[in-house]
Design brief:
By secondary structure, the chain is mostly beta strands. 10% of the residues lie in helices and 30% in strands. Among the domains are: 13-203, Jelly Rolls (Sandwich), CATH 2.60.120; 217-377, no CATH class. It is built from seven helices and 32 strands. The strands form seven sheets. The chain has a 17-stranded mixed β-sheet that branches. The termini are far apart.
Length: 570
């Protein structure tokens, strides 16, 4: 039972992790989003929440900035397509961020903490981002480029795994994944100034007021004013409205998000934090509406009271700390009304079941008395999820980071031909144009390996080097231990070793003859005492093969001493 309980905790922990939401901020041109594979592309809105599996794409000349909940920023340039592939929070509080760029141009300014993980994927590689890093990624049909503008990033690809330092750019081919090129400089693009200017704006944000909510603070500092008082604490006052009947949750619309419900998308440029991380209160005639930040950094779809009437829905802001429920009654029998409920504070819009969007703009059927024409409700009815919209099987586009799901009843998406609208990065122009010189000689392979970097025709070729392990072909097996020395050999023994003779199949040796004590012959004894020396036979001459021993005859040299003495005595 103990083991089963541990398994339940391990597998159930991530299921209860709190979801994460990013925010669409600065935007220029036509930008579209897709919440899931079964949803159609729709125009993106400022202050729209972005969750996991969201896709974003930009048209020609369009740009968009997405602020992440931990302070990082992801930007898309023209003709770009990207996905929030993984955007989750573990039960331990660790945040996992995986952003995939399918094509186009993207910038990333990262501020993840040491415990968080931030990874950017491009076709053929991925980059692990560390704190205080600024990256630029651009992907075409043939090439992928990763540039480190500031800081450092870990590049992982089939060709190599190395740290890209500040000012370096890696180039990867879509057709040859086993090769990459390394630049020592980063070519300048026109969109670099836009991304850098946005980084400067966000760097000057006074995030000390709300350290747990780092995104969306720049809009509050630029638009309204902060108030510190004993009655309200830290509060923010929006700019003076153009009309006198302004109230929170009026300028904007509700959009349906699965797992979250109807979520408010504010039309005010600063309308992110005040509608999802705190509540509104009215400070009187002198102060007007004030936003009180919540101590809980959890994301909220929009904390309002709801009202229902035939063909319409109404809502209004809840006060800070208020726990109101419809149908609650006082001791006298009257219903408990929300503290901020007034006819002027309630907004109405047309509503029908299964509606994924509720827009109050242009609605003219507002009841004169909401208490008689509508009833309070805890929430609006949920939208039914289409049963046959499940993903059947994934299909991966070759050379792309995107997974195109094949949905039942829907044709598979065919990728259109991608035209490279982003200029190819080129090294800085050379002032003195001369005929191209031959490339320098490659260094010795014992130190570096040369990686040729392709350059345009009007720029001399450049070779970039990186340190890599070199295989020399020498393998040492069982090296001698430290302190062991080989015995010295005499100088005359240092001769050239003869090549080994070719191997021949082994021949079975004859059975060895019995050991017999040999008695030297008389002529041998006499030869030892003669003065003439005996010249030995050459060493190379092979000894003649011995004749097989005969059973009937025996040589005198092989007669044993005892038998020879007995014959002499006879």
């Amino acid at each position: 039972m103990r083991n089963w309980s541990i398994l339940v905790l391990v597998f159930a922990g991530p299921l209860y992790a709190e979801p994460r939401f990013a925010r669409i901020g600065e935007m220029e041109g036509a930008v579209e989003v897709q919440a899931s594979a079964r949803d159609a592309w729709r125009p993106a809105l400022r202050n729209m929440p972005v969750t996991e599996r969201f896709w974003l794409r930009t048209a020609a000349g369009a740009k968009v900035e997405i602020e992440l909940d931990e302070g990082s920023v992801f930007r898309l340039g023209p003709d770009s397509l990207a996905e929030f592939s993984d955007y989750t929070r573990l039960s331990t509080g660790q945040r996992i961020t995986l952003l995939s760029l399918d094509r186009g141009l993207a910038y990333f300014t990262g501020e993840p903490s040491d415990r968080d993980a931030a990874i950017l994927a491009i076709p053929g590689a991925q980059l692990s981002v560390r704190r205080g890093t600024r990256l630029r990624l651009d992907v075409t049909e043939d090439w992928s480029h990763a540039s480190v503008i500031e800081g450092r990033a870990r590049l992982i690809s089939p060709a190599a795994e190395l740290d890209l330092k500040e000012g370096q750019m890696a180039r990867l081919s879509a057709s040859k994944r086993d090769k990459f090129f390394l630049y020592g400089e980063i070519p300048v693009l026109d969109t670099d100034r836009w991304s850098e200017s946005r980084d400067k704006v966000l760097a000057g944000v006074n995030a000390r007021r709300l350290p747990d909510l780092p995104y969306g603070m720049a809009d509050l500092d630029a638009a309204g004013t902060w108030i510190e008082s004993a009655e309200y604490g830290t509060a923010w006052r929006p700019p003076a409205p153009a009309s006198g009947n302004w109230t929170p949750f009026r300028d904007g619309k509700w959009l349906w998000y699965e797992g979250l419900g109807y979520t408010w998308i504010a039309a005010e440029p600063w309308g992110w934090l005040p509608y999802h991380h705190g509540r509104w209160m009215h400070g009187g005639e002198g102060l007007g509406w004030l936003w009180s930040p919540s101590k809980d950094p959890s994301f909220r779809a929009g904390e309002v009271y709801w009202m229902r009437a035939p063909g319409m829905a109404g809502w209004g802001p809840l006060a800070p700390g208020e726990e109101w429920r419809p149908g609650a009654r006082r001791e006298a029998g009257n219903d408990v009304l929300p503290r901020l409920f007034l006819n002027a504070n309630t907004t109405f819009a047309k509503f029908a079941p299964e509606a994924r969007e509720i827009d109050p703009a242009g609605f003219g059927g507002r009841p004169k008395d909401p208490l008689t024409g509508a009833a309070f409700a805890l929430a609006l009815p949920s939208v039914t999820v289409v049963a046959n919209a499940g993903v059947a099987r994934p299909a991966l586009r070759v050379g792309s980071t995107r997974v195109v799901p094949l949905v039942a009843g829907m044709a598979c998406e065919t990728p259109a031909t991608v035209t490279a609208s982003i200029p190819e990065p080129v090294p800085p122009a050379v002032a003195d144009v001369r005929p191209p010189e031959p490339p320098p000689a490659a260094p010795e392979p014992t130190v570096f390996v040369g990686v040729p970097v392709p350059t345009p025709a009007n720029v001399p070729p450049v070779e970039t080097y990186y340190v890599a392990p070199i295989y020399t072909g020498v393998v040492v097996l069982n090296p001698p231990e430290r302190g062991h020395r080989e015995p010295k050999r005499p100088k005359e023994a240092k001769t050239a070793a003869k090549p080994p003779e070719p191997a021949t199949p082994p021949v079975p040796a004859p059975a060895p003859a019995p050991a017999v004590q040999r008695v030297p012959r008389n002529d041998d004894r006499m030869q030892r005492h003669t003065a003439s020396p005996v010249v030995p036979a050459p060493a190379q001459a092979a000894a003649p093969a011995a004749a097989p021993e005969s059973k009937t005859s025996r040589q005198s040299d092989d007669i044993p001493r005892s038998e020879r003495n007995s014959r002499k005595s006879q």
